[in-house]
Amino acid sequence: MDNLQPRKSNRTLAYSMAMVTIVMWSSAFAALRFSLEYYSPLAIMPLRFIFGSVTLVLIGAIRRIRLPEKKDLPRFALAGLIGIFSYMILLNYGSVTVVSGVASFIIASSPVFTIIMSRLVLKEIVRPISWIGVAVSFCGLVVIMLSQTEGFTFSLGVLLILGAAIATSGHNVMQRSFLKKYTSLEATTYTVLAATAFMLIFAPNLVRELPGSPLNVNLIVAYMGIFPAALGYLTWNVALSYAEKTTHVTVFLYLSPFLSSLLGFFWLGETFSLWTLLGGIVIIAGMALTNLRKK
Fold it and tell me: What is the pLDDT of residues 251-272, one digit of tens each?
């Protein structure tokens, strides 16, 4: 799944890995909301990412990945702190009061921030058609948002999740720079390990709450750690590494609320309106514009 640098762009692989990632990440919103009924936002973080870190270390040992260079350790620490540690704190606390559908909508707004950061930091050239595509997909998000919520108002929880969207945009840009030197597995492993190290400061919270949590909840947390976290970040980095531009894959995040609605309909029996379907169609149209090839 991963080759050493340098890589040539591969749209099929980039889009496939992005789609796999979005499916996993879309399933995490409802799982997180459910788990937070038994764990505090701080206690759930180390438990989830211990599972994720162990998974990545085992895969890394099998693949015999390289150790990071000493000069890059501070960068990995910063990426873990901003892109995962801060993201998870903001998302977890926000999800206590914000329903999963709204949370997925807000996180899906991150391509707007990513496209701006990519232009400023990575100096990526963003064509006008890509800006139009991002705007069209965002309109589809609004349609889904309005179809899923009643009486939506800004609150502290919403602002926290908006901060998480900005944090994950920074993560996308930082990982793109790592992937010029490291493989996707290496970049993912060292960023997640750094984030997990920061999360261990909340280990006392976990120790207090773990004995009183049901087995099924812990299994759900394990799922979130192994799949949406470890494997999700890995497949996402593969997508970023083989994409021509960061925006070509980050726009896939717009699909998250649509897929969350689909999963909720088939898995939890939640309502799924025609407006939600229309919003999904608009999102896909915007993605097509964003990734339109130059003739």
Answer: 787 787 778 777 766 765 656 5
Burial of 154 (0-12, 13-18, 19+ CB in 10 A): exposed
Task: For residue 83, tell me if it sits in a domain.
Answer: yes
- Alpha-carbon radius of gyration of the chain: 18
Residues 63 and 234: their CA atoms lie apart, in Å, by 14
| Highest mean pLDDT (candidates 166-175, 198-207, 240-249) | 198-207
Alpha helices in 80-183 (DSSP H): 87-97, 100-107, 110-120, 128-148, 156-178
Tell me the one-letter amino acid at 247.
Answer: T
Domain count, the chain: 1
**Could you tell me if residue 3 is inside a domain?**
no
Q: Which residues contact 210 (CB under 8 A, 6 or more apart)?
A: 43, 47, 218
C-alpha dist (Å) from residue 235 to 94, 146, 184, 265: 26, 31, 8, 25
Q: What is the pLDDT of residue 257?
A: 74
In a domain, 4, yes or no: no
Average pLDDT over residues 86-96: 88
Proportion of the chain above pLDDT 70, given as a percent: 79
Establish if 152 belongs to a structural domain: yes
Does the global pTM surpass 0.90?
A: no
CA quadruple 147, 148, 153, 156: dihedral sign = negative
Where does the pLDDT of residue 3 fall: very low under 50, low under 70, confident under 90, or very high at 90 and above? very low
- Distance (Å, whole) CA 186 – CA 18: 18
Quote the domain boundaries for residue 27: 11-290
Which of 275, 204, 161, 224 lies closest to 24 in space, CA to CA?
A: 224
